[in-house]
Design brief:
The chain is α+β, with helices and mostly antiparallel strands and 162 residues long. Helices cover 35% and strands 18% of the residues. The chain has one domain. The chain has five helices and four strands. The strands form two sheets. The protein has a two-stranded antiparallel sheet. A hairpin with a 2-residue loop joins strand 3 and strand 4. It starts with 15 loop residues before the first helix and ends in a 5-residue tail after the last helix.
Length: 162
Amino acid sequence: MAITTKRSGTPAKFDGQKAGKLIAGYVPGAILRRTDQGLDIKGSPFAPYRPAYRDALAAMGEDGKTDLRLTGGLLSSVKARSIETTPDGVRVTIAPDTGTSPQVYAADGKAKRSGKRGPTHNVLGYWLHHGTATMQARPFMGLTPEQERELLALLTRARVFG
């Protein structure tokens, strides 16, 4: 037995370009604000740094707060990389760049530059987000459920849907 459906009425409209611009403007800032608070994509505190890393931060005059910012390069590089629209959807890619930050070490109670470069921001971001064999995951690339609701409200107020 077959079922046939028919659509009637005015089709819903979706402004993908407008939605993409709003998403690209909102998401990087939301990630930075939440990460600065030491919260992951579930809104929970990040796993704490290992004691040896906290000691190294303290030796550089840095606090031990888990906010993923030593040089600031990784988080400063999180931006909208592309916006792709279709008639019924939009894909916005938000990611760190492929640049690097200076490698630092502790000396005289300060962070000093070694003259070398650290890993690329996108690789470092992957390691932080997913963890490694020696480092706990600290998922930061994404939105909390509350941030998702805020984004939906923003998109609704902007009338990107129908």
